[in-house]
Every structure is written in structure tokens, then in C-alpha cells.
Write a structure and sequence with these properties.
mainly beta; elongated; 6-stranded mixed β-sheet; single chain; 6-stranded antiparallel β-sheet
Length: 591
């Protein structure tokens, strides 16, 4: 049976609502390609702090570990003075301070440690001496080349040797970035779609690098030459934190170093036909895969997600991005890799973790604890669930940067659609397709705090809405009268006062030929296999108990015609049982 109250379901849901920067410019050359073994210089390498453990990487699953490395190991290197002793006028390449060279290598090791490759790179002073000559050549000629010719200003054979073994960079008014290391990891520009500079810095085998640097002086740009090929280039690959090397890497990553180009590398894998899928806070992300290119470090696939996944979007809170790389051919067999990147603001202390209250998880209609059903409404109570009240009828998967996921008994993780969030409550639509059985519910809030709790999923977990949004008392129901001629009239079974002052309106059964039907609205019982209802203890026919059809998560049970024996009973209980599971008791009044 249906009635003219097509907007009634929407009404039911309302019952529970509570100064310009200076111009900057930089250019990176093409990434270098090794031409053979590099002999290096015995005894010329010196260790540079920090020494990350184990095997030289940061535990990126630990937000505070990443935050501490950012502030203690990376940011301080930006302010080390270069103290260049050379001259553009005389062609003297000069030298830079030892502290500046070590700052460059420290930045290299920071990125390697974040990526999960050994952060064991040492400063090679002989590489650096030659790279210093190349840096003056690049700055004085205001251009970059791995193969400078003898007609270049201040050309030297040793400078040319450094140029072909190095990453190259020139920059004007660039942000503080000794050695252009952050720029190399970003690897922007149309000539760097393969992110070759990044791939060499993150190449696991490399143990020694050198750096040559010339500051910006008048019309001459800052220049860096980072020698990246050492005698370990073709050695066996050392252990890494993950099977693969990705940028940004799995785990927590400071938002300022989540760049537009993302990459995934696996040694000797065929990635030419690989595909990439991304979701951001549960929503799909469009992306473009760059042309596949081998020859720079480990085989790598590179892609660019749509604007907003990188550092600009992360400022409002943690941005969780799930990456799945499929059809990675390893040893002739396809493999798939899935990992999560959490871009965060290291200037913000970690948010307090959500705390679930004793009431915990309840059916939104009955307000009773217990299992939840797929495609049903539920409420979660606690603390630190969000930072403010936000409501969205479009039911996104994230509100105020808070998300709620459920890992079901089959091991599948589902992201719930959220109706509203407050600091102490989340109302959500349970995901469809959840397998019945024990499950784990996880809430992650805006600051990255998260908490999990064990729950139960059942195919049927019934609740009936009450008029005062309490799970008891007057039912949120409608009546329909059909007279002997087929004429219909309908109405609400309760007053339209503001909750909690709603009361039952007595239902007039009318003349003996009239038939009265009642529609009760609830959630969690659309998958029932049997249903029975009583009103005032008397069985009543059940015409159907199904999804209401117009509004997500809303179910409807229709009963009637009401027996004439109910006349004059006044306020009586309504009890329904779905698949052997009783719903909460509500009431109606019979005149």
C-alpha cells in the first residue's frame, strides 16, 4: 500500500538531525643516464647524519616519527649558509662550506629514508670537487647540459665529467632548497615525465654522492650539480622497507612534499601495461599516466592525479589516498599492489584519537545497540569524532575530513556514507555488500587520529522510527483509510509538535465498511525472510516489509486492515518481529 506522503521519509530523517611572493623560477635538466661503471674515489667519502634505523629508513606508519624527522632532520638544512668562495668574474669555481655540502646529503638521506630505501648515502669530496666546476659552468652559461662543449664559459674536463654523472639544476629566487633536492624529487617540467632525477636519488644501491653549488649572483642563477653515479650502481639490490619504492611513499607524508607526479618503482618489473587506480578519502580520483620510460634507476610507472590530492589540498587536514597499481609483471606473472598515502600538516600536532562511548553504535531508529545491517541507518557516539557539526544530504564519504570504514568478516573494507558529524556523533548509511559476521569499525578524524572497535554485521537488524526520535513512544507512522467505494484519506498518527513533545493522534476506525492500514518506517529489515506484527497484542496482517524505495536506507512495513476489536483501546503497543528478531516497541492510539 502507498500513500500521498511521498516526502514523509525525508521528514523522518529530520527527526534525528542535531601579499605577493617574489617571482621564482627553476629548471631541471634531463635526468642523466649511466654509461658504465663509475670508479669513484677511494677514501673520499664521509658519513653525514642522520643515521636512520633499521637499514636507514623512517617508520612512515608512525605520524610522530615522520613529524620528528621533518623538523629535526629536514627543515634545519634549509638555512645552512653556502659560503661560496668562487667568482663568476674570474671563473673560479671556489668551494662551499662543509656544512652546506653535508646539508645537501642530509636532505638526500631524508627523502630516501621516507621512501624506505637505505639512507646510507655519504658525501664524496672528490665527486664534489668536480661537481663544483660543473656548477660554475651551468651558472655562468645560464643553461644545463650533461655534455657541455669546450666553447662553454669556464669549461673544464672535470666539470664535463661531473655533468654527465649528475642531476642538474639552475634556479632564480627559488625557495631554500640546498642542492635542489626537493626540486629533484618533485621533478616538474615537460622533460621530466619519467621523474628520472627522483629515481636516481631514491636508487637503493647508491652509497656515495657529491654536490657542487654556486649561489645566485646578479644575472647568474643558482646552480647545483648532484653527482649520483657511484661504484655501487650495478651492485645487488639491498633490502628496502617495502617490495616497491613509491613517491609519495606509503604512510604519513608531510603535505609540502606530496607533489603532482606520483611514482611506483619495482626492480626489473614490466610496468609498461600497468594501471593505477586511486581513491581520496574514499572517493575515486581521476588521473593521467605519463609515458612509460625505462633507463633511469628502477623501472617506474608515473602518473598525475587530478588537482587537489597533493600538497595544496592537505592543508585542511589529513588527506588519505589509497593507491592500487595493477598488472605489474614480475617474473612473467601479474601482481597487484595497494597502499595508502596520508598527506598531513606537520605543523599541526596529532589530533586526539576518537573515543567511543558506552552507548557506542546504535540503530538510528531504535537507538538500541547490537548488530547493524547493510543499507541501514546507524549512529555512532563518542568523543573526538569530528571538530564541528557538518551535515550533507548528498551523503559523502568524508565530512569535516572524518571518515568511517568497516572491515567485514570476508576481509573487505567498506567506506560508509556520512549524513552528519559532530564532535560526539556520526550518523551514517551502512555500506551495502557487507558480509555478515564479526567486523571492525574504524573512525579517522580530521587531524589523523583514529580508533577502531569490534562490531557485528547481520543481514537483519531492525529498528522502527519513533516520532520523538527516541526509539520508543509514539510511532513515526501514517494511516490510510479506504472506504467501500475505494475513496482514500490519510494522515499522520502523531502530532506535529517539536520533539520531544509529539503525542499520538487517536486513529478513528470509522464505519464498519472502512479499512485502516498503517505504515511504519524503520531501517535494517529490508532483507527479512519473515515478518509478523501485533498491535495491542492482537495479530495484524502484514502486507509487506521492504525498502521504502525513495530514500536510501529507509525501510517500510505496511499492516492492515486493523481489526475492529481494537476500537476504543486507546494507546497500545506495536511490536514487529523480522526474521525472528524483534524490533523496538512503539505505540499508536486507537479511538
Amino acid at each position: 500500500m502507498t500513500s500521498r506522503f511521498s516526502g514523509f521519509a525525508a521528514f523522518l530523517l529530520l527527526l534525528s538531525f542535531p601579499a605577493l611572493a617574489p617571482a621564482q623560477w627553476h629548471e631541471l635538466g634531463q635526468p642523466p643516464v649511466p654509461t658504465g661503471y663509475v670508479t669513484g674515489s677511494k677514501g673520499a667519502a664521509v658519513a653525514v647524519r642522520p643515521a636512520y634505523e633499521p637499514l636507514g629508513w623512517i617508520d612512515t606508519s608512525n605520524r610522530e616519527a615522520v613529524r620528528n624527522a621533518w623538523f629535526n632532520d629536514f627543515l634545519p638544512t634549509a638555512d645552512v649558509p653556502i659560503e661560496w668562495t668562487g667568482s663568476h668574474d674570474t671563473g673560479d669555481p671556489g668551494d662551499t662550506s662543509r656544512a652546506y655540502k653535508e646539508a645537501v646529503i642530509q636532505r638526500v638521506n631524508f627523502f630516501r629514508a621516507m621512501a624506505g630505501v637505505p639512507a646510507w648515502v655519504q658525501l664524496n669530496l672528490e665527486f664534489s670537487r668536480k661537481a663544483q666546476q660543473a656548477a660554475l659552468m651551468m651558472s655562468a652559461n645560464k643553461t644545463l647540459s650533461h655534455f657541455p662543449t669546450e666553447d662553454w664559459l669556464f669549461y673544464t674536463a672535470e666539470g664535463a665529467e661531473a655533468a654527465k654523472n649528475s642531476n642538474l639544476c639552475i634556479a632564480y629566487n627559488s625557495a631554500r632548497d640546498p642542492g635542489c633536492i626537493a626540486l629533484y624529487i618533485e621533478d616538474s617540467g615537460d622533460n621530466n615525465t619519467a621523474v628520472g632525477h627522483r629515481r636516481w636519488i631514491l636508487y637503493p644501491q647508491i652509497r656515495e654522492m657529491g654536490t657542487g653549488d654556486v649561489p645566485q649572483v646578479g644575472e647568474f642563477p643558482y646552480a647545483n650539480v648532484l653527482w649520483v653515479f657511484d661504484s655501487n650502481l650495478f651492485n645487488p639490490r639491498p633490502a628496502t622497507r617495502d617490495d616497491f619504492v613509491a613517491w609519495p611513499p606509503p604512510g604519513y607524508v608531510p603535505k609540502d612534499i606530496v607533489y603532482d607526479r606520483w611514482s611506483f618503482a619495482y626492480p626489473e618489473a614490466d610496468l609498461s601495461q600497468a594501471s593505477v587506480a586511486m581513491t581520496r578519502n574514499g572517493a575515486p580520483v581521476d588521473l593521467t599516466i605519463e609515458p612509460y620510460q625505462e633507463g633511469f634507476g628502477e623501472n617506474t610507472i608515473v602518473w598525475v592525479p587530478q588537482s587537489g590530492v597533493g600538497n595544496t589540498a592537505a592543508g585542511t587536514g589529513d588527506v588519505r589516498t589509497t593507491v592500487t597499481v595493477s598488472n605489474v609483471i614480475i617474473g612473467g606473472q601479474p601482481r597487484q599492489f595497494t597502499y595508502e598515502v596520508i598527506a598531513f600538516d606537520p605543523n599541526a600536532a596529532a589530533a586526539a584519537n576518537p573515543v567511543f562511548s558506552a552507548a557506542g553504535l546504535v540503530n538510528s531508529a531504535s537507538f538500541q545497540t547490537g548488530p547493524i545491517a547493510p543499507d541501514a541507518w546507524a549512529d555512532l557516539f563518542g568523543e573526538n569524532l569530528a571538530t564541528q557539526f557538518v551535515i550533507d544530504g548528498a551523503l559523502p564519504t568524508s565530512l569535516d575530513a572524518s571518515t568511517l570504514t568497516i572491515r567485514d568478516a570476508a576481509g573487505r573494507t567498506h567506506t560508509a556514507r556520512l549524513h552528519f558529524v559532530t564532535t560526539n556523533r556520526i550518523q551514517f548509511l551502512t555500506p551495502s555488500g557487507m558480509a555478515p559476521g564479526p567486523a571492525t569499525l574504524t573512525v579517522t578524524n580530521k587531524g589523523g587520529g583514529s580508533a577502531s572497535t569490534s562490531i557485528q554485521v547481520a543481514m537483519v537488524a531492525p529498528g522502527i522510527f519513533s516520532a520523538n526520535a527516541s526509539g520508543e513512544g509514539p510511532a513515526a507512522a501514517t494511516w490510510l483509510r479506504v472506504d467501500p467505494l475505494g475513496n482514500r484519506t490519510d494522515g499522520f498518527t502523531f502530532t506535529l509538535d517539536a520533539p520531544p513533545n509529539r503525542k499520538n493522534v487517536p486513529i478513528d476506525l470509522g464505519p464498519s465498511g472502512d479499512q485502516i492500514y498503517l505504515s511504519f518506517y524503520g531501517t535494517g529489515f529490508r532483507n527479512q525472510t519473515s515478518v509478523s506484527c501485533t498491535i495491542g497484542g492482537e495479530p495484524v496482517p502484514v502486507l509487506g516489509a521492504v525498502a521504502q524505495g525513495q530514500f536510501l536506507g529507509l525501510d517500510q512495513v505496511v499492516v492492515g486492515p486493523l481489526p475492529r476489536s481494537l476500537a476504543g483501546r486507546g494507546e497500545v503497543d506495536v511490536n514487529c518481529i523480522f526474521s525472528g528478531i524483534p524490533a523496538n516497541t512503539v505505540t499508536v492510539a486507537i479511538k
